[in-house]
Specification:
Radius of gyration: 21 Å
Number of strands: 17
Distance between the termini: 55 Å
Order of helices and strands: HEEEEEEEEEEHEEEEEEE
Structural class: mainly beta
Shape: globular
Helix content: under 10%
Number of domains: 2
Strand content: 35-45%
Number of helices: 2
């Protein structure tokens, strides 16, 4: 018997099967419908429709590009969930070399490379420069990234009193603070600062000093940029920064 009060879920399932596309959400395979409505006037924003709600802050890989889900998907529409994706067109590298957990461990790959949405603002930070003998104004940017266990280490580094710097657009920026107001998304505010000899502009890495290891390329963690068709995420390896023999220690779990 036909029930007029029954929710019809078959329509969206049919659309998903006929129009759905293979995407990756946080590196794992997923099926969704991607669309761009006329109300969206920028190419940097598209809509995503799914059968189940995705968490705000999810990183979506679609057509060779990374997108950040910045709107919550909490209200179902025609038995589906709809959200707005913003193009994460920048790749930012965070140097977590000085961070250790409560067990004295850090990631073997401590150069965390992530897709990010960067917003240029009209805000400026005033500083007194002894070298210039006067006040200077430094421009600010906001960097939006997925809030997860790895990116939270940036906040932990700041809370431990360490300096966090990034290279963006050929300039050096220093972190002022981290906001978690938007659940699922970290908003990190940076101010522009002076370049120094420890900055690798070519590879976009801000080192804490002029020294950097010969195996620095093996220290890059780009797992947030990769996709895993088999549905299995790689296991992270941790190390003791230096053991009794002056070498690198063994693995453990972060926490």
């Amino acid at each position: 018997m036909f029930n007029i009060f029954e929710n019809n879920t078959k329509d969206f399932e049919f659309l998903l099967q006929s129009m759905g596309q293979q995407i990756y959400v946080d590196g794992l395979p997923y099926q969704a419908i991607i669309s761009q409505q006329k109300s969206i006037k920028t190419k940097n924003d598209i809509f995503i429709s799914t059968k189940e709600p995705l968490e705000r802050g999810a990183t979506v890989f679609y057509k060779g590009l990374h997108w950040l889900l910045q709107s919550p998907m909490v209200v179902p529409r025609v038995n589906s969930y709809k959200g707005l994706l913003t193009l994460a067109e920048h790749e930012i590298t965070f140097n977590l070399k000085d961070l250790e957990d409560k067990n004295g461990l850090r990631p073997v790959k401590y150069l965390l490379k992530v897709p990010a949405v960067v917003s240029l603002t009209g805000d400026f930070t005033g500083n007194y420069s002894t070298g210039l003998g006067g006040d200077t104004l430094a421009s600010e940017i906001h960097v939006f990234v997925t809030d997860n266990a790895k990116t939270r280490r940036v906040q932990a580094l700041l809370q431990q009193g360490n300096e966090v710097q990034i290279v963006f657009g050929g300039f050096l920026y220093e972190a002022l603070g981290v906001s978690t107001v938007s659940k699922g998304v970290l908003e990190i505010t940076f101010k522009q600062t002076l370049l120094n000899d420890s900055v690798d502009l070519e590879n976009g890495i801000a080192w804490q000093d002029e020294y950097f290891p010969d195996d620095w390329q093996d220290r890059i963690d780009d797992t947030m940029l990769q996709v895993y068709p088999n549905g299995i995420l790689p296991v992270e390896e941790l190390e003791v920064p230096e053991d009794d023999n002056g070498g690198w220690g063994s693995s453990g779990s972060w926490g």
